[in-house]
Amino acid sequence: MIHFENVGLRYGMGPEVLRDLTFDIPKGSFQFLTGPSGAGKTTLMRLLFMSLKPTRGLIRMFGRDIAVIPGEELPLLRRRIGIVFQDFRLLDHMTTYENVALPLRVRGKDEASYRSDVIELLKWVGLGERINVLPPVLSGGEKQRVAIARALIDQPEVLLADEPTGNVDPPMARRLLNLFTELNRLGTAVVIATHDLTLMDRVDARRMILTGGRLDIHD
Ligand SMILES: Nc1ncnc2c1ncn2[C@@H]1O[C@H](COP(=O)(O)OP(=O)(O)OP(=O)(O)O)[C@@H](O)[C@H]1O
Q1: Regarding the domain delimited by 2-80+156-218, which CATH topology (the fold level of the hierarchy) does it fall under?
Q2: What are the pLDDT tens digits along the chain (219 aa)?
Q3: Which intervals hold domain ABC transporter (predicted)?
Q4: Residues in a beta bridge with 208
Q5: Is residue 17 lining ligand 1, measured as CB closer than 6 Å?
Q6: Which ipTM did the prediction report?
Q7: Which of 9, 13, 25, 133 could form a disulfide with 18 if both were Cys (CB 3.0 to 4.6 A apart)?
Q8: 0.95 exceeded by the pTM?
Q9: Residue 100 near residue 146 (C-beta atoms within 8 A)
Q10: Whose CA is nearest to atom 23 of ligand 1?
């Protein structure tokens, strides 16, 4: 579903941050992306979301070479991907409920068809009491859970989550991990960037380890 071949990336005239990355993300697979701080995890997530283009090599997303995809088609391809950014990127003028419902609204779905699903998911991530508030009054951990709910609500083909448990306590981290494994069971390919070893030890999943811009994969 996603294919990288000899991919390299540098920012501006700087050194290569990612080097010679060759790997596949198969349909329905589950993988952790890990490595020391500054190794390039967020950069790789941005390549996977097509918000950065590689400076060399080939990337195929859903069978298409991203170098030749017209810019106006990218938003459509990105809709097949759920993403949790490290900085959450919630819309501050919309309530928790509206933020989570947004991907469904963008698709033109009728609110009556999804309202109860959105509320159920918000309850599952512990935000049942925060449904009608605006993001600026939420804590960091609450914002993170809204961002996760928004990424999951439409059962994307791929889920990319950058440190999705970085702001929550261990029981909530386990609960969120259960949500990711359940989504994966339903067919979504999941990529979770994390430093959290105890989290990784809970799932028998592929580990993609970035060190100094190079990738090692342990199946
Ligand atoms: N916009 C940018 N311009 C220039 N250099 C950048 C930019 N973003 C990241 N870098 C550099 O690229 C390297 C990889 O950064 P990246 O954020 O991808 O690492 P990371 O593994 O996600 O780190 P962390 O675990 O601390 O979040 C770092 O050396 C960083 O300084």
Answers
A1: Rossmann fold (3.40.50)
A2: 999 999 999 999 999 999 999 999 999 999 999 999 999 999 999 999 999 999 999 999 999 999 999 989 999 999 999 999 988 999 999 999 999 999 999 989 999 999 999 999 999 999 999 999 999 999 999 999 999 999 999 999 999 999 999 888 899 899 899 999 999 999 999 999 998 888 899 999 999 999 989 999 998
A3: 2-217
A4: 33, 217
A5: yes
A6: 0.96
A7: 9
A8: no
A9: yes
A10: 38
